[in-house]
């Protein structure tokens, strides 16, 4: 009886090594492998508790990030303004309830606030010079410092702005604010603390008309959603 011939030995040779993933590919590969294994085990268990069916594969597609950034003119960024207030500005201007100088001073100051603070760092002379920049080049009518002074005083009376020290003007950040909502709420808390949470102090009520004052007093003391319903009827 002859014995079986010895098994043929496999010749030793280099093993095929998969190409090493680099950079983000390696990271995503590890993550996808874990997700695929976990998802496969979960689906198989739900579909067939006996484990007789297994997930055979996963197909993933990546889409471009749809988030777009704002494209704004100029180098100074942008601010958020209340739509209600911007319409109010137009209505007041048409009705001659505010002067041209008051409107111009407020817009110039609001557009120059330091991000996240609601503070515009301008002296009245700097506001005057800033407003006269184009007029000086074109030989147009120029605003005077005394007119700016009267406009700032009127805007303080409307609760649109508040003097915050030499060369510093606090803007009503419920009307116009450069920054995110977290920063705005921090500024609101600081202003409220500075005024000892007085419901009749700065920020509460926006002039110059009594009807607007009454409406804003109601709005700031109630739910914003309910206030919007009041305005839209």
What does this structure look like?
The protein has 233 residues and is α+β, with helices and mostly antiparallel strands. Helix content is 47%, strand content 6%. It contains nine helices and six strands, in the order αβααββαααβββααα. A four-stranded antiparallel sheet has the order 2-3-5-4. β4 (161-163) and β5 (169-171) form a beta hairpin. α3 (100-110) crosses α4 (124-131) and α4 (124-131) packs across α6. The termini are far apart.
Overall residue-averaged pLDDT value: 78
Query: Can you count the beta strands?
Result: 6
How are the strands of the biggest sheet laid out side by side? 2-3-5-4
Proportion of strand residues: 5-15%
The number of distinct helices, counting runs of at least 4 residues, comes to 9
Terminal Cα separation, in Å?
107 Å
Helix-strand blueprint:
Blueprint: H1 23-47, E1 80-81, H2 83-94, H3 100-110, E2 113-114, E3 119-120, H4 124-131, H5 133-138, H6 145-157, E4 161-163, E5 169-171, E6 176-177, H7 181-194, H8 210-220, H9 224-232
Antiparallel strand pairs: 1-6, 2-3, 3-5, 4-5
Helix pairs in contact: 3-4, 3-6, 4-6
Task: List the main descriptive attributes of the protein structure presented here.
single chain; two-stranded antiparallel ribbon; 9 helices; elongated
């Amino acid at each position: 009886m002859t014995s079986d011939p010895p098994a043929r030995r496999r010749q030793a040779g280099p093993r095929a090594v998969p190409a090493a993933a680099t950079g983000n590919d390696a990271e995503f590969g590890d993550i996808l492998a874990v997700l695929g294994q976990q998802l496969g085990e979960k689906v198989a268990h739900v579909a067939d508790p006996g484990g007789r069916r297994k997930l055979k594969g996963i197909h993933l597609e990546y889409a471009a990030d749809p988030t777009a950034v704002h494209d704004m003119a100029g180098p100074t960024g942008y601010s958020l303004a209340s739509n209600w207030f911007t319409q109010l500005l137009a209505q007041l201007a048409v009705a001659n309830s505010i002067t041209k100088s008051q409107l111009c001073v407020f817009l110039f100051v609001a557009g120059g606030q330091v991000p996240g603070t609601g503070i515009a760092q301008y002296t009245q002379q700097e506001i005057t010079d800033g407003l006269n920049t184009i007029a000086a080049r074109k030989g147009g009518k120029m605003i005077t410092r005394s007119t700016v002074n009267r406009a700032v005083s009127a805007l303080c009376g409307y609760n649109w702005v508040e003097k915050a020290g030499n060369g510093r003007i606090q803007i009503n950040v419920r009307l116009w604010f450069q920054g995110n909502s977290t920063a705005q709420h921090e500024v609101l808390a600081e202003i409220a603390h500075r005024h000892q949470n007085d419901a009749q102090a700065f920020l509460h009520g926006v002039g110059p008309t009594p009807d607007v004052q009454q409406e804003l007093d109601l709005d700031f003391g109630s739910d914003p959603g309910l206030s919007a319903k009041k305005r839209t009827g």
